[in-house]
Structure formats: C-alpha cells, structure tokens
Design a protein that fits this description.
mainly alpha
C-alpha cells in the first residue's frame, strides 16, 4: 500500500472514530441528561473522559496483531483475495469507512440510534462481493445472532431492574438522591464500555492497512491514543438528535427508568469482555433497555411507533451499507483503472 493511501486510511479511521463518539457514545448519558440527573455539559464531559479511558483500556488489554484485526473485521476472504494487491485492499477499506460514516450521518440527522459496527460489517459484505471475494458468513452469522439476543437480553434486564427499583418503594422521592447517584455511575459504566468496545474498530482498520505497507512500522501506541482522543472528541460534541429520541421520544423517562436502562445496557455490553468476539452495540442495548424499563410501568408508556422506526433502521443498516459500500468500491476501483 502506498504511503499516501495509508495516510488516507488512517485519517478516515480517525474520522470514523470521531463519528462513532458523536453518534453512539453520547447515547451513554442520554437518560442522565433527560432526567436532569446531570447537566448536559457535565454529562457529555464525563462521557468523553470515560470513553477515552475505556478506549485506552480496551486497546491495551488485547493483543494487537494483523490476524486479530482480520478476524475482528471479518475480512479473511477479502484479505486473501487482495493478497499481492495492497492498494485494492486500501481502497476497499476506504469504501467501507466512507459507507459507515455516511450511514452514521444519515441516521444522526433523522435522530435514529443505529450501530456503527453493523454499518461497517454491512459494508464489508458489499465491498467483498463487489471485489469478488466471498463474505465472511461466519462472522456475519455471529453478528446476526448478537443482534437478536443482545436487545432482547437488554430489554429483559432493564425490565427486571425497574421492577426491583419499584419494589423498594413506590414513593420515588424518598429514593431520588440515591437513584440519581446510581444512574450517574451506571451511565459512566456504559460510556466506559463503549470506549472499550468501539475503539477496536478503527484500530483494527489501521493495523490491517499498516501491515500491507513497506514503509517503517506505524506506532501502535500513537494510533491507540489518537483513536481514543477522536472518540472522546466526538462524544464531547454529542449527537443531540439521538439523545432526544432515546430520552424523550421513545418514552417519558423517570430517574428510576434511566437507572434501569443504563444498568441493563452496561451489563449487556460487559459480555464482550468475557470472550465474546462480536461487540454489542451501545445503541441497540440502550434503546432496548429504555423500552424494557418503560414496559415495567405499562405498555402504554412506550411509544411503539418510534420503537418500530428504530427497529426498521436496525434492519436496514447492514443492507443499506452493503449496497453503498459496493457502489463506492466500484467507483474507486474504476478510478484506479483509468
């Protein structure tokens, strides 16, 4: 891979990390902001700091190697197909990241939570097939399974936590101070978990690209720090449109519901720390947890039309990014040919 192409991949990887923080990580404190447990600026600053710390921790505890990056990204068939053609792989990675960033921008604009990981994996499917490589169906199958199990588990846990909180006393004012403190802690756990999970995506892209270049090795430590700071910077800005959807449009959140949703989301996301290869989406786990917490107070407390729109976006994410990724890589490779 030429040095200029490697630089382009690194810049886009950092842009994707920033967009990930802007689109997903701010969701970690959406319920805390909505319930006024913390002022918005304080909540976003806390989330940004914990995302940076979580990202550094998450990247430090893994063995950063090229086989790890290929396995995590589901790009084994594509890397074999492009062996000896590093520039083709570079343009493929660029198409994947552009598709992911574009989908994140679109879903942010319409205020819908969606998974950056699912967008990226969808684009890998489209790009791989467009280049002539087989898709990594095993990795995609794992992702599909997690996509079904994760939200159901999150909703069930949130429902259970909410029932437990309600059983402690119907007069929420007596518990408000304790609940606000607990909600702050749980939101911090979600933010940290997001940093641990999602920092691996841009890091793996850079590691894979750097392995195909003949120039001096790229400093892994420098890339880790840059990725962590990019995610934190995006979080600090905050995806306010999605925060409103999760905190206000999906249900009318109380402090107790916010605590239940954040606790459930943090618990579900922690599964990726115990040998689960496919990361769990922050957006999926938190949105599902908000629904579960709302259900604990009655079916009518959840705005099912909004929930349906979110579900449709989740289903559309891998399909849309697969098409977009295939189109983009086709344009880029045509540009190379001419």
């Amino acid at each position: 891979m030429t040095p200029s192409l490697l630089v382009a991949v690194i810049v886009l990887a950092l842009a994707m990390a920033y967009m990930n923080g802007f689109h997903d990580a701010s969701n970690a404190v959406s319920t805390t902001i909505t319930t006024r447990t913390l002022p918005e600026s304080t909540a976003l600053t806390m989330a940004a700091i914990l995302n940076v710390l979580g990202a550094l921790l998450g990247m430090a505890i893994i063995a950063v190697t090229t086989p790890w990056a290929i396995r995590l990204l589901g790009l084994s068939p594509l890397s074999q197909e492009t062996a000896g053609r590093p520039d083709v792989l570079g343009f493929a990675l660029i198409a994947m990241m552009l598709s992911t960033i574009a989908w994140d921008l679109l879903t942010w604009y319409i205020g819908m939570p969606s998974s950056t990981w699912h967008a990226f994996f969808g684009s890998t499917l489209g790009v791989s097939l467009a280049i002539g490589a087989a898709a990594d169906w095993e990795q995609l199958g794992i992702l599909l399974g997690i996509s079904v199990i994760g939200p159901v588990l999150s909703a069930a846990l949130a429902f259970g936590v909410m029932q437990a909180v309600l059983s402690l006393g119907r007069n929420e004012r007596l518990l408000r101070g304790h609940l606000r403190f607990a909600q702050t802690v749980s939101a911090g756990a979600v933010a940290t978990g997001h940093g641990i999970n999602d920092s691996r995506l841009p890091l793996a892209v850079v590691v894979l690209a750097a392995a195909t270049t003949s120039i001096s090795p790229v400093s892994t430590t420098a890339v880790m720090v840059a990725v962590a700071l990019a995610i934190g910077a995006g979080t600090l800005v905050g995806g306010h449109r999605i925060i409103r959807t999760l905190g206000r449009n999906l249900t009318d959140l109380s402090v107790a519901q916010g605590l239940a949703a954040e606790s459930s989301s943090a618990a579900t996301m922690s599964l990726s720390l115990f040998g689960l290869e496919s990361p769990i989406s922050t957006s999926h786990s938190l949105a599902s947890s908000v629904v579960g917490a709302g259900l604990a107070r009655g079916l009518r407390t959840v705005r099912w039309r909004v929930a349906l729109h979110i579900l449709l976006i989740w289903l559309a994410t891998p399909l849309a990014t697969a098409v977009l990724g295939a189109a983009l890589v086709g344009v880029l490779l045509e540009f190379i040919a001419t």
